[in-house]
Specification:
The complex is a heterodimer of chains A (295) and B (432). Chain A has 295 residues and is mainly alpha-helical. Chain A is 70% helix and 4% strand. Chain A has a domain at 19-217. Chain A has a two-stranded antiparallel ribbon with strand order 1-4. In chain A, strand 2 and strand 3 (134-137) form a beta hairpin. The termini of chain A are far apart. In chain B, the strands form three sheets. Chain B has a seven-stranded mixed sheet with strand order 8-7-9-10-11-14-15, sandwiched between helices. In chain B, strands 2-3-1-4-5-6 form a six-stranded mixed sheet, sandwiched between helices. A two-stranded antiparallel ribbon of chain B has the order 12-13. In chain B, helix 1 runs antiparallel to helix 2. Classes of the chains: A mainly alpha (295), B alpha/beta (432).
C-alpha cells in the first residue's frame, strides 16, 4: 500500500509539472496554430537562470527575478522569431520554433560546458514530509494545488477580462478579430507571457524535485507536455491539465510495475503509445472539438 | 525602425548560433560551421578553431607549442568534454595536462619534439564519438588517449582501428573496448574484475543477500557492469533484481521505492555522473537507508558534493586513492590552484579524482611508447606500445598481449564520508 501511494505521489507531481508546461503549448496553439517547440527549452532556461541567479541573490529575490526573466525571454522569442513570420506559411513558423529550441539548447551547452548543474535547494519546497510512510518533498504535494489555483486564475482571466475576451476572439478567428480592432500582437504577446510564466513556475517545482539541469533537460518534459496537450485536445486548457496528470500517473505506474516483468524500460514508450492511440481513436483529443472556441 | 530592430535581433541570433555551434558540437563541424559560413566567414573560422575545446582558455594553455624551435608531436585527446560525462572527461584531461606540464617534450631519434595535446570532444554520446575520432585522425595525431566512458570508446574504436592509429583507453572499463580491436589498449582494470570485486565486498563485508541494479537503457557501460555483477552475485548465492531507466530520465523515486519494496540490501548504480547525483539526492529526500554501490564513475567530487551532509551510504571501486602518491597529489593540487579555469574544470575544488591520476599515467605511457618506437609514425608506435611498462601513480602498468588490456590485480574501495564531505578509503581489494 505504501508502495502504491508512493507511485501515485510520483505520478501526480510529475503530472502537475507537465501540466504547467502543457498549458503554454496549448494556449499558443489555440491562438497562433503554432506548436512552440522552444517551450520546453524555455523551461530548461528558467532552471539554469535560477542556478546562476541564486549564486548571488537570496532566494526570495531570485525566484521573482527568474519568473520575470523567463517572461522576458518568452516575449523576446515571440517578437524576434515568430512575429516577423506572421504572414508566412505555418510551416515556416514551426521551423523557426525548432531553430529557437536548438539555439537555446546550444547556448546552454556553451554557457555550462554541457556539465550537469545542481539546482539550489529552496527552503520549504525542498523539505520533506511523511505521507503514509513515504518521505516526499513539499514541492510534490504543492504542485497539484498550485496547478489548480493557476488554472482557475487563468480561466477567470480568459472568461472575465478584456484581454481574455480578445484572446478568445483571436483564437476563434484571427483575421476577423483583427478587422474588429483587436491588437493581435498584444494578444499574442500576452499569450507568450502567460505561457512563459507558467513554464517558469513549473521549472521551479520540477527542478526542486529533480535537481539536475542539463541543456537537454527541457527536451523530454517538453515532448511529454506536448503529448499531454494533444491528449487533452490541443487548444483546451482543462484538457491539457487532465492529459498531463494522466500521462504522469501512467508513466509512474509503468515504472513501478514489478521489476521481474521487465516493463519499466518502456515507461517513455507508453507515453508515446498513448499519443498514437489517442490520435487514431479520437483525433481531436479528449476535450478538443472542432467547433468549440479554442483557449 | 522596426525593421532595423528585427534585423539586429536576427543577426545577433545568427551570430550566437555560430558561437554555440563551435563550442558544443565539436568534431562534427558540419552543423555549426556550415550554417555560419553563410553568415560571415570570419566568425566561421573562429568557430572552427575553438571546436576542439569548449572553453577557449583551456585549449590555449595546452596546445600552445612552447617556443618556435623544434618539431611538434601531436597526441590526440578523445574525451567527453561536454555532456553527461563531461565532469569525468574534463578531470581525465586535467591529469594529461598536468603530465604535459611536467614532461612537455619527448626525445625521438636525437630530436626534441614538443608535445601538443589535440582535443576532440566526443560529447558523451555514441553518435558524436565517431566524428570526433575521425577529426583526430584527420589532424594527424601520432596516438590517442581516451576516452572516459566505454560507450564512446567503443563507438570511436573502429575509426582508430581503420586508420591504424593506436589508442590508449584511460578509464573505459568495458571488455569490448579492446576485444577485437588491435589498436585499442587500456591502462585500467576491466568491468569483469570490478564487478567481481564489488560483489565480493558487498556479500562479504556488508552481508548483502539481495541487490537492486539500476542501469541506463542502451548504455553499454551500465548494462555490462550489471551483467557481470549479476553473474558474480548470483554465483555466490545472492538474488539480483534489475531495472533500466530511459536516457534523460529524471524521476528516480519510483525506482528507489521499488528497490525498497523488493527488500534490497544494496543498490548498484553503475551510471553516468549526472544520473548518480540525481539518484543519490532523490534517495536522500526519500530517506532511503540502503547502501549504494558505485563503480569507477562514481568517484567524482560532484557525486561527493551531492551526498555531503546527507545520510546516504555510498561505496565504490576506483583506480586511485588520494594519498597513494604524495608527490603526485601535491604537484597536481598546486597545478589546479595555479589557474582558476583548471580549478573549475575540476569541479571547483582540488579533490583529486582517480581519473586524473589515470590521465596522468596514460600520458606517461604514451611518452614511453613514443620513446620506445623512436618515431612519430603511428605504425611504429603501435609496434612498440605492447612492450611498454610504466610505474605509474596508480600502480605499475603493462599490457597483456591478447587484447592489450592492462595487467591490474587490485582496486580500491572507497566510501563517501558524508559528514566530512570527503572520500575515505575502505581497503584495497583483489580477486583471486
Amino acid at each position: 500500500m505504501q508502495y502504491v501511494i508512493s507511485i501515485l505521489l510520483s505520478g501526480i507531481s510529475l503530472g502537475g509539472q507537465l501540466a504547467l508546461i502543457a498549458i503554454g503549448y496549448t494556449m499558443v496553439y489555440g491562438i497562433l496554430r503554432l506548436i512552440n517547440f522552444a517551450h520546453g527549452d524555455l523551461f530548461m532556461a528558467s532552471g539554469l537562470m535560477m542556478i546562476y541567479i541564486s549564486t548571488w541573490a537570496p532566494l526570495y529575490l531570485a525566484i521573482p527575478l527568474v519568473l520575470v526573466l523567463a517572461v522576458v525571454l518568452g516575449f523576446t522569442i515571440e517578437r524576434a522569431a515568430y512575429k516577423p513570420l506572421r504572414q508566412a506559411p505555418r510551416m515556416s513558423v514551426m521551423i523557426s520554433a525548432i531553430g529557437v529550441s536548438y539555439l537555446l539548447q546550444n547556448t546552454a551547452t556553451y554557457i555550462t560546458g554541457g556539465q550537469p548543474m545542481t539546482y539550489p535547494s529552496i527552503p520549504f519546497l525542498y523539505d520533506t514530509v511523511n505521507v503514509a510512510g513515504n518521505n516526499v518533498k513539499w514541492a510534490v504535494l504543492l504542485t497539484p494545488v498550485l496547478v489548480i489555483v493557476l488554472v482557475f486564475a487563468l480561466t477567470q482571466l480568459i472568461n472575465h477580462t478584456k484581454i481574455g475576451m480578445a484572446m478568445r476572439a483571436v483564437a476563434k478567428d484571427f483575421e476577423t478579430s483583427q478587422l474588429m480592432g483587436i491588437k493581435i500582437n498584444n494578444v499574442i504577446s500576452m499569450t507568450f507571457i502567460i505561457g512563459s510564466f507558467l513554464a517558469a513556475v513549473g521549472s521551479v517545482l520540477y527542478f526542486t524535485n529533480y535537481q539536475t539541469v542539463v541543456p537537454t533537460s527541457g527536451a523530454m518534459p517538453g515532448l511529454k507536455s506536448f503529448v499531454a496537450a494533444v491528449f487533452g485536445g490541443i487548444g483546451s486548457i482543462p484538457g491539457a491539465v487532465i492529459g498531463a496528470f494522466l500521462i504522469g500517473i501512467c508513466e509512474s505506474i509503468v515504472k513501478g510495475l514489478p521489476a521481474a516483468w521487465g516493463l519499466s524500460v518502456f515507461s517513455d514508450a507508453v507515453t508515446f503509445a498513448i499519443l498514437i492511440i489517442i490520435l487514431v481513436v479520437k483525433p481531436t483529443g479528449l476535450f478538443g472539438e472542432r467547433a468549440t472556441d479554442k483557449v | 525602425m522596426k525593421k532595423l530592430f528585427c534585423l539586429v535581433l536576427a543577426l545577433s541570433m545568427c551570430l550566437s548560433l555560430v558561437a554555440c555551434g563551435g563550442g558544443s558540437s565539436s568534431g562534427n563541424g558540419g552543423g555549426g560551421a556550415a550554417s555560419s559560413g553563410a553568415a560571415s566567414s570570419g566568425a566561421a573560422s573562429s568557430g572552427g578553431s575553438s571546436a576542439s575545446t569548449p572553453s577557449g582558455s583551456q585549449g590555449g594553455s595546452t596546445s600552445t607549442p612552447s617556443g618556435g624551435s623544434g618539431d611538434t608531436i601531436k597526441i590526440g585527446v578523445f574525451e567527453p568534454l561536454t555532456g553527461d560525462s563531461a565532469s569525468g572527461g574534463n578531470k581525465e584531461f586535467l591529469g594529461m595536462q598536468y603530465a604535459r606540464s611536467i614532461t612537455p617534450t619527448v626525445e625521438v631519434g636525437g630530436v626534441t619534439y614538443n608535445v601538443e595535446l589535440v582535443t576532440a570532444d566526443n560529447g558523451s554520446t555514441t553518435d558524436k564519438a565517431p566524428s570526433a575520432a575521425a577529426d583526430l585522425v584527420g589532424k594527424g595525431v601520432s596516438l590517442v588517449l581516451g576516452s572516459y566512458g566505454s560507450g564512446v570508446s567503443m563507438a570511436g574504436g573502429p575509426i582508430f582501428n581503420d586508420a591504424g592509429l593506436s589508442a590508449i583507453g584511460v578509464s573505459c572499463t568495458n571488455p569490448n573496448v579492446t576485444a577485437g580491436n588491435d589498436y585499442y589498449y587500456r591502462i585500467c582494470f576491466l568491468d569483469d574484475f570490478q564487478a567481481h570485486a564489488l560483489a565480493n565486498y558487498v556479500q562479504g563485508e556488508l552481508g548483502a543477500k539481495t541487490a537492486y541494479c539500476l542501469g541506463e537503457l542502451g548504455n553499454e557501460y551500465d548494462q555490462g557492469l550489471i551483467a557481470f555483477f549479476t553473474q558474480y552475485f548470483e554465483a555466490a548465492g545472492g538474488k539480483v533484481v534489475s531495472a533500466s531507466f530511459p536516457t534523460n530520465n529524471s524521476d528516480f523515486t519510483t525506482y528507489l521505492n521499488q528497490a525498497k519494496s523488493e527488500g534490497a540490501d544494496v543498490i548498484f548504480i553503475p551510471n553516468s555522473i549526472s544520473y548518480i547525483t540525481q539518484i543519490l539526492t532523490q534517495a536522500d529526500s526519500l530517506g532511503i537507508e540502503i547502501p549504494f554501490l558505485g563503480s569507477d564513475t562514481a568517484d567524482d567530487n560532484m557525486v561527493l558534493s551531492a551526498v555531503a551532509g546527507t545520510n546516504v551510504k555510498l561505496y565504490l571501486t576506483t583506480f586511485y586513492e588520494e594519498g597513494g602518491d604524495p608527490d603526485f597529489d601535491e604537484g597536481f593540487k598546486a597545478f589546479l590552484n595555479s589557474d582558476p579555469t583548471l580549478m573549475s574544470s575540476n569541479g571547483g575544488n582540488d579533490i583529486i579524482a582517480a581519473v586524473s591520476a589515470m590521465g596522468y599515467d596514460a600520458y606517461n605511457v604514451a611518452i614511453e611508447a613514443i620513446k620506445a618506437a623512436g618515431s612519430t609514425d603511428p605504425a611504429a608506435i603501435k609496434a612498440a606500445i605492447g612492450g611498454v611498462s610504466v610505474d605509474g601513480v596508480s600502480g605499475s602498468i603493462s599490457f597483456e598481449p591478447v587484447n592489450g588490456d592492462a595487467v591490474r590485480d587490485f582496486a580500491f574501495i572507497k566510501t563517501a564520508d558524508t559528514a566530512a564531505g570527503q572520500w575515505s578509503l575502505v581497503g584495497k581489494t583483489t580477486v583471486e
